[in-house]
Amino acid sequence: MQPIAMSCGEPAGIGPEIAVAAWNAVGADIPMVWIGDPTHLPKDTKWQAVETAADAATATAFPVLTRDFGAPNVAGTPNPVHAEGVIASIADAVALVQSGEASAICTAPIHKQALIDGAQFAYPGHTEYLAALAGRSSVVMMLASEMLRVVPATIHIPLADVPEQLTAATLTDTILITHAALKRDFGIANPRLAVAGLNPHAGEGGKMGHEEIEMITPTLDALRAEGFDIAGPLSADTMFHPAARARYDAAICMYHDQALIPIKTLDFSGGVNVTLGLPFVRTSPDHGTAFDIAGTGTADATSMIAALRMAADMAQART
């Protein structure tokens, strides 16, 4: 397997230290290469400059494709001067996987405000930027762990905008992309999907909203008629206890928090952000930059390790 390309993320956050910790934990089994400014790594990190991604497989210290971000790093204090370098790190990782020099990409957390301030970053987050780099108009964000997989049909938009943005086309695309990824990337031959309603009690027959009656149920019925194994629309408050989770392989939710609150409650440290619908594998730890603990050496690398393991498994499933 070719190495996994890891973008550096926000230098002032915990990204550099969890990247090194993850390599120390699994680098012997999962080759990876970090793209960033080595001066931003934790003090006393043993790192090795590599010329190509392939060289990372034989590295004896933390392997780095070196970049100069033009300014030193202060833990906990984002510097907009780093913005161009952070964005380029993501683009470089994508270029490596598109050329076949990397098997997948794993992205460290970014700080969107610093990217906007320093480089007028025009995307709501990683997911949308990666879609643009890949030339894909429809991608899906999945949060996955050993306990649960969830997919929000709408992502980084205000809650007030969800009913307008949640269309039959959006829901259908989300389900089709998720279904295909479960088969291709997770090895599930016959995926079972559970779909939440938008409103409390899935609308309760129209007493608490009409989206379920007017759009969600007809959309699911059309897909069921094509042979998809789909349950729903279901009341979201009863979808995530153990017996319910055993009945599906992924839950499709209607908006960001409806999906992310359950998985972050069940497995905050082990959750992985996966972008589905891309022509390459992309994973990321399911947490932010954690400026408050950056540089203290207390950051938990569990999610980064899980993201690397999942990227490797998904890349292997595609071969």
Automatic annotation (TrEMBL):
Cofactor details (free text): Binds 1 divalent metal cation per subunit. Can use ions such as Zn(2+), Mg(2+) or Co(2+).
Pathway: Cofactor biosynthesis; pyridoxine 5'-phosphate biosynthesis; pyridoxine 5'-phosphate from D-erythrose 4-phosphate: step 4/5
A GO MF label: cobalt ion binding
Leading EC class: oxidoreductase
Annotated InterPro entries: PdxA, PdxA_fam
Broad class of the protein's primary localization: cytoplasm
EC number: 1.1.1.262
Keywords, comma-separated and alphabetical: Cobalt, Cytoplasm, Magnesium, Metal-binding, NAD, NADP, Oxidoreductase, Pyridoxine biosynthesis, Zinc
Residues that coordinate or bind substrate: H126, T127, K264, N273, R282
Cofactor or coenzyme needed: Zn(2+); Mg(2+); Co(2+)
GO cellular component, one term: cytoplasm
Reaction catalysis annotation: 4-(phosphooxy)-L-threonine + NAD(+) = 3-amino-2-oxopropyl phosphate + CO2 + NADH
Task of the protein: Catalyzes the NAD(P)-dependent oxidation of 4-(phosphooxy)-L-threonine (HTP) into 2-amino-3-oxo-4-(phosphooxy)butyric acid which spontaneously decarboxylates to form 3-amino-2-oxopropyl phosphate (AHAP).
HAMAP family tied to this protein: PdxA
Other noteworthy facts: The active site is located at the dimer interface.
Record-stated family: Belongs to the PdxA family.
Quaternary assembly: Homodimer.
Record-given protein name: 4-hydroxythreonine-4-phosphate dehydrogenase
Annotated organism of origin: Octadecabacter temperatus
